[in-house]
Amino acid sequence: MHYDDDYYYSMIIYHVQLMIYDLHLVDVVSIQLIHSILLYVNNLNPIHYLVCAILMHLNFL
To answer: Cα separation of 4 and 11, whole Å?
Structure first.
């Protein structure tokens, strides 16, 4: 079965949110910000940018 990109992006967003909730790193506003970043990056497409946006926001870079 083939899923489109939107399915994968939504799953990534979902897992990132779960990870954030588990680690208690950021509040709901920041999660919404990450969601917005992911939706914007989705338009640019490459997964690399998506991952970097997440890591930068979580201060891992």
So the answer is: 11
The C-alpha R_g of the chain, in whole angstroms, comes to 12
Domain extent, residue 16, equals: 5-57
Interatomic CA distance for residues 38 and 2, integer angstroms: 22
- Whether residue 61 has pLDDT greater than 50: no
Structure-token pair, residue 26: 């950021």
In total, the chain counts a number of residues equal to: 61
HSE-up of 28 (CA within 13 Å, CB side)?
0
Average pLDDT over residues 28-54: 66
* Kind plus residue range of the DSSP H or E element containing 51: helix 47-57
Domain count, the chain: 1
The amino acid present at 28, given as its one-letter code, is V
